[in-house]
Amino acid sequence: MADVKHFDPDTVLDTVVRLFWRQGVATTGIQDIVNATGLNRSSLYATFGGKQELYRAALERYVQDRSRFGRLEEDDRGLPAITEFFTGLIETRCTGEFAQWGCMISNAHAGTENGDPAVRAILDRQHQGLRTALHTALLSAQRQGQLADEADPAAAADVLALLAHGVNLRSRAGADAQQLHRTIAAAIAAVAPRA
Amino acid sequence: MADVKHFDPDTVLDTVVRLFWRQGVATTGIQDIVNATGLNRSSLYATFGGKQELYRAALERYVQDRSRFGRLEEDDRGLPAITEFFTGLIETRCTGEFAQWGCMISNAHAGTENGDPAVRAILDRQHQGLRTALHTALLSAQRQGQLADEADPAAAADVLALLAHGVNLRSRAGADAQQLHRTIAAAIAAVAPRA
DNA sequence: ACTATCTTGAAACGAACGTTCCAAGATGAC
DNA sequence: GTCATCTTGGAACGTTCGTTTCAAGATAGT
C-alpha cells in the first residue's frame, strides 16, 4: 500500500546517541543530526518526532545499549565483580572511541535536560538500578566473607553509586585513568577486612 | 575626560553567575543576561567581551565566592571538619536559594564548556584544591587518632573528592538530602577506627 | 498497471542566536 | 563652558535554530 523507510531507524538512533552523548542536547543542532545520519528532516520528524522526543529516545537507547550493571547483578563473585565493573567503566571513559565523552546519564544530570520529567525519571531509575546492582554484589561478597564485619552493604552501595558519577565527570575533563583506578580500588578496599 | 559606568560590574557578574550556574551556558542567551541585569548589550560587550569570556569570568567568580574548601583547609579538627564541609554542601545543594542548581564546576564537567582549555584548567585546579584540602584535614584527623590504622589519608581524600561530584549531580536531579547525608556519613565512617 | 499510502527532498517558516555598529547621552579635566 | 572620551540605547547585522509544508518519488496490494 505504501512506501517503506529507506533507512534503519535503529542505526540512525545509534548515531544520534553518539551526537547527544558527546556534545549534549543543547549544543547539537538538527542540522548536525541531518549531516551525521544522512537523513532528511522530513524523515527525522516523521520517525522520531521533535528534538526533545528524539533526545528521550536516544537516552533510553543509551541506557539499553551501554549500561553495564546488568552484568554486575548477575555476577556472584562479590568484590571482584565490583572491581571489574569499575575497571571496565574507567577504561571506557578514558580510552578508545568514547574517551572523554563521560556518561550520557551523568551529563544529563548537569544540564537542563533533567527539567523534563521523563528524563529525570530515567536518571532516577538508572541510579536506583546501579545502587541495587552494587548492593546485590556486596551482599554476595558478604556471604563469601569478603567484607569486614562492620561493613554495611547498603551504605557502601550508595557510596559506590555516587562515586561512579565522580568517575564519569572527571574522566570527561580528561582525568588520568590510573588515578581513577587507584581511587576506586581504595574505595572498594575500604569495605574489605584488614589484610 | 570620559563618562563612567552606570552600573557595578561586580553586581552584574554575580547575576550572570546565577544564570550560568542554574541554566548552563548553552541554554542561556545574551538576551537572558540583558533581561536579568538590565544592562544594554553595548555595556555588556564593552565590559566583559563576548559570551565565552563572560562565562569564564563567571566561573572564576563562582569559584571565588562559592568554594568552601578554603575553610576546610584551615579547620584542624579532623573528621568533624570534613563532616561539616559535606553537611553544608548537601544543604546548599538541596535546600534554599540554590536548591537543585548543582555545582557550577560539576556542571561544567558535563557540558561542552570544558572544551575550552581555560575552563578545563579551572576545573582541574578546583579538583586538586578540594583533594588537597581533604588530604590536609585527613592528616589532621590522623594526628588526632581519628583514623583507623590502615586508613590511607591520600587515597581517602581522592575518594571523597570524587564523591562530592556525585552529591552535586544527584542533588541537581532532586535527590533526597537525608539520603545524601547518610551516604556521606558512611563514607567518612569508613576511615574511622571501629567503634 | 493502477492507485492509495507512506516516504523523501528541498525550500521556507518565524524566532532566536551572538555580535556589531553608530548616534545620542553623560562625564570629568581644563 | 568647552571638549575629548567613554558609555549607553536601540536598531540592525548575518547565521543558525527547531519546525512545517508540499510536491515529487517509491512501494505494496489489488
TrEMBL record, chains A, B:
Residues 6-66 form the HTH tetR-type domain. It holds the Pfam family TetR_C_13. InterPro entries: Homeodomain-like_sf (IPR009057), HTH_TetR (IPR001647), Tet_transcr_reg_TetR-rel_C_sf (IPR036271), TetR_C (IPR011075). GO terms for molecular function: DNA binding. Keywords: DNA-binding, Transcription, Transcription regulation. The keyword DNA-binding applies. The keyword Transcription applies. Residues 29-48 bind DNA. PANTHER family: HTH-TYPE TRANSCRIPTIONAL REGULATOR YJDC, TRANSCRIPTIONAL REGULATORY PROTEIN. This is TetR family transcriptional regulator. It comes from Streptomyces purpureus.
